[in-house]
Amino acid sequence: MLDFLKILAGNVFKGPSTDGFPFTQAHTPRRFRGKVHLNPALCVGCTICRHVCAGGAIHIAERPDGSGYDYTLWHNTCALCGLCQHYCPTGALSTSGDWHNAHPQSEKYQWCERHFVPFLSCDGCGAPLRPLPPALTGRIYADNHVDAARLMRLCPRCRQIETAMHAREASHEAQSGS
Amino acid sequence: MNDIFPALFHMLVFPGGLFALVAGLFLKGLDRRVEARMQRRVGPPLWQPFLDIVKLALKQTVIPATAQRTAFLAAPVLGFAGMAVCAALIPVAGAYAGLPGLGDLLVLFYLLPLPAVALMVGGSASSSPFGALGFSREMCMMLAYEVPLLAVLLAVAMKVGAATGVGVEFSLSAVVGYQLAHGSLALDPVMWPALAAYLLFLPGTMGVPPFDVPEAETEVLEGPLLEYSGPALGFFHLASALKTMVVLGLGVAMFFPAPLPGGALVNVAWFLAKCAGLMLLTLTVVKAATGRFRVEQAFLFYLKYPAPLALLSLGLAWRGL
Amino acid sequence: MLRKLAARSPWLYRINTGSCNGCDVELLTTACIPRYDVERLGCRYCGSPRHADIVLITGPLTVRLKDKVLRVWEEIPEPKVTVAVGICPVSGGVFRGGYSIAGPVDKYLPIDINVPGCPPRPQAIIEGVIKARDAWLARMGG
Fold first, then answer.
1. Which residues are CB-neighbours of B48 under 8 A, at least 6 positions away?
2. Which among A2, A5, A12 is the top mutation candidate for probing chain B, defined by the most B β-carbons within 10 Å of its own β-carbon?
3. Model-level pTM?
């Protein structure tokens, strides 16, 4: 019945188990989901992140002049669920270990991630496009002997034509060979 | 006239007033610190209660529009003043013999509930329904814990009176004097039940868990204190610190005044150490280990255990054992 | 000088404006889990708005609670500092645009510190409390 006395005395003896946090660095677990960051070089503008975002924190708006799009991620609406990171096909979004979120009200509207992602133009017809990152194209065309780097600089329509030409050449070669 | 100045000194500086205030606040800090350690936390610094008081002094006092203004503002001062007088009545063995003709157990018995009464007055004057709830709970608790207190005081008075042949000895100085001559009452088996009852009375009167029903912040939002803010709340905290000192000092004086050989300073330190020990034993450990009683459980607890224990001692002392 | 001393005793008060309780649990951990122990900064969670110095607001401010929250907030004596804990009071969070949501809170109350997160880490809350304490000291003129 008096076990609690033993526990209390033990606790006094063992000393506090408190983190030194405000005065020392706090430990952050390896897989901790903190602030989300975008790597604009990898973004292809597929908008799946905007679609899955629980809090609606992601805003993507194309510029009227067609030069690219503005990508805004509001940290003050982000629920840190990590869905965007999970669904991002190119790995452009990642959660960092940064949890130092407290900020004064005056900084409220600066507390976001803003990027301008420019469009490139198609080598064939000049239409605006975002190229897939090389790592991803490498995986997609792993079994095909095509010039993936060239294909990725083409818009989907030109890519179709290019692929069709390629296939016709291949079949001609096969007929003449037999 | 010549008696006035020493009396004023005793009331305002030592052992009442300033001394009791500082000691009481430090005891509160120690209490919070040790409680934190028992829960494996670091806890606030020892002088945290002082910082709290300074903070409260700088805050705005809000008086509810529907409150009884005078009673609302007078209540905390009433509790504080009552306890400041009380603190001067407690003898410190080996350093201070108590005010002649005033250090009386019955006076203490009447003055001790003052902070609780102040709480009740303040709570009901605040016109808040939670204040009224806190009022009724405080009232209930008071009825419960005053019974064992009265029995303990009577037992002590009876015991000392029977031994010295005056019948019933209510003077606290005489009680301490008797113990200095014949050994502490804590060492007398007849008084053990009374001592146990007094130890059980302490958490109740100080309103610490599991007997913090009147100020339960999760149930009645701190009850009578709900509407208080700023300096007025600070006065309640000061009164509580003084009361800590008074009830602990009374316990030490009634049961274990035994002084150390040495000067007055040594004995003041020894007195404080005994108070701190008593507090850790009866307040801190209990607070750290328990939840909260319901009001009827707390009420019945006091009538079931401490009251019969104190009455047992009283009976034994009455039979002249 | 006195103000500097006073700033080391910030008492906290929670207002739940229709929160899912996630942030409230995190607030609780800062006080009740020995690892975070907010009491060593002199903080104490108090039950009455009249005792509070730092107000921690959680939840997206539902339509039903709006007037009550504003009333409780008015009860808190000056000087006080308001902290929005979690993304809901800051922006509406996942409830933003719902038919029952009147928030974000800073439409109605002057917020001083934002601590976004869903919920924020206890350490982040402690960091917010420390920032709020500095803001409080500045407000007292110390």
1. B29, B32, C8, C9, C42
2. A12
3. 0.81
